[in-house]
Amino acid sequence: MTRSPNLQLPQRPPRTGSGAAVGLTLALVLTLLVLQMIVVMTLPKQNRPAWPASYRLLTPDDQRALALRLEDRNLPQAAVLAWEAYLQEAALTGPEAAKVMLQIGKLKQDSADYDGAIHEYYRAERLLERQGLQDEDLSRTITVRVRECFRALGQFGDLSREMAERASPTPGGQNLAGRQVVAEIGGERITVSDFDRIVAAQVELAVRSQWGLTPEEADAARQRAYERLADPQAKARHLQQIVMTRVIANEARKQNLEESAGFRERLVATADAMLADTLIGEEVSKRATVTEADIQRYYEANKDRYADPATTRVARILCGTREEAQTLLERARAGEDFAELARANSGDAQTRGNGGELPRAVPEQGDLVPGIGVDAELHGRIWAASPGDVLAEPYRSAAGWEAIKVLDRTPRKERPLEEVRDRVEYDTRLARRQEVTEQYITELMNDAGVKVYPEAFTLGGATPRPEAASP
Questions:
Q1: Could you tell me which of 115, 68, 81, 120 has the C-alpha nearest to residue 99?
Q2: Which CATH class is domain 25-177?
Q3: Please, are residues 61 and 91 in contact by the beta-carbon 8 Å criterion?
């Protein structure tokens, strides 16, 4: 049974006397003030009253101190309310008010309220623009943080437009690129913003269909998807597909195909697969956790996969006939320099100047001989020879007759975990997802009392013997 983590905080010794009473009173007052702020901030804007008289017991300086204290205690949502109250009560100039809005935006961003954070950043910018003020440091900070928020939201299309608009000499508030119409279907218009929303929904659906992705892997998958649509021509092709699909679907609805037997049969046939896929995806996401110990164990069990394989360097002399290759082999075996023979006689222009040496070493695993091709027999001869050996017989390759010399050999070398951590962690997560998927399906099959009778396909009327179902 999994033990719950102990999250108890250390207890402070009780205080006595008037100090305890004062502390309790102050705590109650602060609690009431925060609750009042929460009630006020959750009301619709038009219904928000002025801050209650009890809150005005605090001066703007007190409100600012309260906000900073709440920040210091890692209570960003309460700190946002305190800063909002300070912003309303204090007589701040444009830049000072904008900085408070920026601080509120940062707190919302830290709380993963990215929509709210962007609102605060835009509000600060708009305030400065309306008052004709400039603050380069503030503008740079806002630019960076707005991009971070759009990236965290996975709205890479909106992020691209945001970056383009900020690079434009036109003020951000006047740039209407997102409202540009890119397609019309009858009376319906599709704007750039509409296109971005459609793409975002498609990307999210595709990412969610990949079981058990970590947040980092999901973000990388989104990034790759949007990179494929970065080119305007790629966007135009995708837009064409969206429009075509919508036009055809609209026509199908006009013909009431949604009510047709054929459509409903296809819908029922795919519903089971879609439900199964959705359930597996959710369960794998919850169960397929990977710890540092899992990564260590997987690495130890699969070290060979991450080691640098043994390799051997090889030189060749490519000849037109067997007799020519045999003569050169005999001269090399008699003591003549193989490299000089290659420079003078090889028909391979790419290796001739380098003494016949092939461009890459021959790995021990597999059948590939780089520069010659996949050839199991030649690969075996090379690895059966020792470093410095000249093969006794010429070899017929696709290019001609080969005189081969084995130059030297590099032994297999294990790589420590830290050098291959990314690969190992990815493989561990992949293996864990597969394991969890099989375990979960087996559980469901057993709970459902499933039995299968494969012998029924071959035994005719004989009574089949049940077998346990397997995923």
A1: 120
A2: mainly alpha
A3: no
Q: Which runs of E-coded beta strand occur in 188-326?
A: 188-191, 311-319
pLDDT (0 to 100) of residue 266: 87
Candidates 283, 263, 390, 408; CA nearest to 334 is 390
Residue 444 pLDDT exceeds 60: yes
**Whole-number Å distance between alpha carbons of 319 and 333:** 17
Question: What's the mean per-residue pLDDT of the chain?
Answer: 80
Residues forming beta bridges with residue 399, ordered by sequence position? none
Tokens of 277: 């896929």
Helix (H) or strand (E) holding 346: none
DSSP string computed for 13-72: PPP-HHHHHHHHHHHHHHHHHHHHHHHHHHS-GGGPPPPPTTGGGS-HHHHHHHHHHHHH
Domain 308-410: which CATH number of 1.10.760.10, 3.40.50.300, 3.10.50.40, 3.40.50.1950 = 3.10.50.40
Whether the model clears a pTM of 0.85, i.e. scores above it, the answer is no
368 and 314 Cβ atoms separated by less than 8 Å: no
Secondary structure letter of residue 2 according to DSSP:
P
Please report, for the chain, the start and end positions of each structural domain, with discontinuous segments joined by +: 25-177, 193-287, 293-303+424-468, 308-410
The 8 Å CB, 24+ separation contacts for 130-139 are 131/94, 133/94, 133/95, 133/98, 135/95, 135/98, 138/95, 138/98, 138/99, 138/102
Q: Provide the token pair at 345.
A: 């006689």
